[in-house]
Design brief:
disordered C terminus; 4-stranded mixed β-sheet; 107 residues; alpha+beta; 5 helices
Length: 107
Amino acid sequence: MRYLILDANYRSTGIRDLDGNYLSQRELSISDKLWNEIQIWVDRYIYVVKMDDNERKINLDLIKILDTQGLGLCDKIISELKEEVKIEYFSEGLLKKILTNLSQEKK
């Protein structure tokens, strides 16, 4: 079983292990198409990462869109990996974890 976290932090690949190590496409063995989708999502989310609390409140609609995309990427990663995986999603816009298959199991 592999445990991963999807987030859009500065200078990140978007996917890390539970020890905080960001993973490369080769380490994950995912398709170029999915890897590119993740990188585009990280690039779009960096705009939000730079915001202060007031700017985040004003841009909640954008954060919701990006979080919905991020959760969709979690599903795609799970579907594409050849091994059993649990993924936790961290919303950089809301600064909190959003329930995923890993978070629900931990409760």
